[in-house]
Each structure stands twice: as C-alpha cells, then as structure tokens.
Amino acid sequence: MWRRLFFSRPRFLTSLSTANYSLISRQTAARAMLLCADRLLQTLIPSRRCHFNSQFASDNAFGPCPEVGMMDAVLNERSDAGSNAEEDQAQPREEKMSKRAQKKLLKQQKHEARRAVRKAEEKEHKKQEAARKRREWEEKLASVDEEERVKLIDARRGLKKERVEKKREEKAGKIERLRKAKEQGQNIVIDLEFAHLMSPNEISSLTQQIMYCYAMNKRSSSPGHLWLTGIGIDMETQLLKIPGYNNWMIEKESRSYVEALQDWKDDLVYLTADSEVTLDTLDSKKSYIVGGLVDRNRWKGITIKKATEQGIQTAKLPIGAYLKMSSSQVLTVNQVIEILLKFIETGDWKTSFFHVIPQRKRCGADSDAVQEVEQEEDYNGNADKQCEAKVCSDNFKTSAN
C-alpha cells in the first residue's frame, strides 16, 4: 500500500496536462505525496495531528507550492462532501410514493380542484340570480303607483311569513316524530367497534354514511330509534366534525351494544349477509344491529363471527327472494338503514329493496315484480332521467369551458 502511495503518480496530478506535469520538480512531487499520505492517515486516524503540513506545505520550508494548495482544496471538498453525505444519511428519508399512490393523489387533487371551481361557480350563479331578482323587484315597484306598491310589499311579506311558518311546523313535526320514536320506535343500532380495522379515509366514509342515516330517519314519516354504540376516540373525532351532531336526537354510547342494551340481550339481532336465517318481518320488541364497517371486503365474515361469539341472534335481509344482486349482498350502512326505514313505513320488502338498491347492483329479478315497480315509479324514473341528463349536460359545459 505504501509502495503504491509513494511511487505511483498522485491522483491530483491526473487532472493536469502532460506538459504541466513535466514541469513539476521531484521536490514538489515528493512534497505532495507526503502531504497526501498525511491526509490519508488523518482520515484513518482522526486523532492524529498533521505533521507534514507545517514542514512541507509551508512557504518558508521549500517555497510556495500551488499544486499542494490545489490538492488541499480537492481534499477539503471531498471531506465536506463526505460529511454532507453522512448528515443526509442521518436524516430520515421520505418514503417514495408508488406510481399507483401518485396517480390516486393526483386524481384526488384534480377532483378537489374541480369541486372548488364548481362551488365558486354555484356561488357566483346564486349571487347573480339574487341580484337579478332584486333588480326585477325594484323595477316592478318603480312601475306602479304608491297604493299598488304597498299591496305588493304586503303580499310579499305575507308569502315570506307563510314559508317561515311552514318550515317551523315541519321542523316541529320532525322533532315530535323523533321524540315518539325514541319512546316506542323500532330500535336500530349501528355498531362502531370496528374503527381500529379501518383506515382514516374509511372512517371518514362511514361518518358520511351515518350522517345520511340520521337525515333519512329525520325525514321519514315513521322514524326509528337510532343508536350509535362503541364510539371510540377516532370515530368521535370524525363525528364531532358534522355540523349539529351534538343536537342529534339519537342514543350515543361509548360502550358496546351488549353493555348498553344488556337488559334486552335476548332481543338483539345482528343483521349480516352471512347469516343462514332470513328475516321475514321486523319485530318492534327486538333491536336490530347493523355493522358499522367500511372494509372493501377485507374482513369477510367478521360480523357473524362476532355475533356468534357473543351469543347474539343473526339474520339477513330477504334480498334473494325479490331480486338477484350482480355481486355480493353486502350493502352500505346507509342503504341497510334506509331499507329498514322504508319497510317500517310501507311493510313491503319488495318496495323497500327496489326503492333503495341502485340498478347497477341488480343482476335480475322476477319480471312481474320489475314490471310492477316500473309502472309504480314510471314518473319518478322519467324525472330522474331528466335530472341525470341535465347534470350530464352541465358537467359537459363545465369541462368544455
């Protein structure tokens, strides 16, 4: 190693041209090699002090040596680069996202950007519409005499008062129905003890479904008595983000349904698609449990396993008796709740299923049942198609702009 170090051509000289190398004296070359050796020893043994720098690199010893200064600069740069590399390695590296995750993030960002633009356009449209109506009203008042103007203003105030009174009556009616349902309504429980099995996005999705459930129950003419059990910290954090959640007229329990309804444990029925028992009707004395789980089919059979271990009855909705599903019979939480509420209102499973389950999930059904439902909902279907066509045209105009 030392032989190669002292008798080989120094590395810093490789960058010099052949002509310049021939001009370097032996004394300069020896001086540079000794300095290189000392720097090498300093690298291997950090505690060693430099002995050759002061003797051979000094201007007083052998005179100025620009080549040695060049080598010092190169070695200093390398040492700085090495220290920077060590610092970079000491810092935790950010995990690189996969291509699929990058595409998903980009898609989400584009969706949020489009939603922001759409909201801004809707806000601007409402603002312009309000300004137009205000302008038309002022022009109408300016075109009539004083007596007619007073009549128009009084009539408008009367209409506004009627609308406010109607809304107040509707709100009071909803509150009264929910109060009665809390006393003698059908108990429907949403089990929220699966939060630890879900990702943050799935918990957020479940929160939205619970919000839909409460809104549907509030609008229903025959609402049920809703329970939220097993509310953990993560779930409660998301639920508290819903406006007005603290004022909901439902039961909120951090305990499990077994503890919260321990006096009625024999009347608990867990609704799961994996059950062998088919539900014929709803018993007002029983409490029906719906699993609050958004798992994208990762945890198959987890609800029936939990109910079996707890010794609770299980049942499934009679979907197969009225229609065939294109995939599994697993529905979202809000779809199950809406089916139960619709059955409480109508007492008919067929009407409940065809009213809630979307067409894309249906593979086939009895032709008579399909024809009957289509005849009953012909007007609603045409109205829905017109709405869909309008939405599609609006989306096309937005994308074109």
From TrEMBL:
<dbReference type="InterPro" id="IPR007356">
    <property type="entry name" value="tRNA_m1G_MeTrfase_euk"/>
</dbReference>
<feature type="region of interest" description="Disordered">
    <location>
        <begin position="79"/>
        <end position="137"/>
    </location>
</feature>
<protein>
    <recommendedName>
        <fullName>tRNA (guanine(9)-N(1))-methyltransferase</fullName>
        <ecNumber>2.1.1.221</ecNumber>
    </recommendedName>
</protein>
<keyword id="KW-0949">S-adenosyl-L-methionine</keyword>
<dbReference type="GO" id="GO:0002939">
    <property type="term" value="P:tRNA N1-guanine methylation"/>
</dbReference>
<keyword id="KW-0489">Methyltransferase</keyword>
<dbReference type="InterPro" id="IPR038459">
    <property type="entry name" value="MT_TRM10-typ_sf"/>
</dbReference>
<feature type="compositionally biased region" description="Basic residues">
    <location>
        <begin position="99"/>
        <end position="108"/>
    </location>
</feature>
<dbReference type="InterPro" id="IPR028564">
    <property type="entry name" value="MT_TRM10-typ"/>
</dbReference>
<keyword id="KW-0808">Transferase</keyword>
<feature type="compositionally biased region" description="Basic and acidic residues">
    <location>
        <begin position="109"/>
        <end position="137"/>
    </location>
</feature>
<feature type="domain" description="SAM-dependent MTase TRM10-type">
    <location>
        <begin position="174"/>
        <end position="364"/>
    </location>
</feature>
<dbReference type="GO" id="GO:0005634">
    <property type="term" value="C:nucleus"/>
</dbReference>
<dbReference type="GO" id="GO:0000049">
    <property type="term" value="F:tRNA binding"/>
</dbReference>
<dbReference type="GO" id="GO:0052905">
    <property type="term" value="F:tRNA (guanosine(9)-N1)-methyltransferase activity"/>
</dbReference>
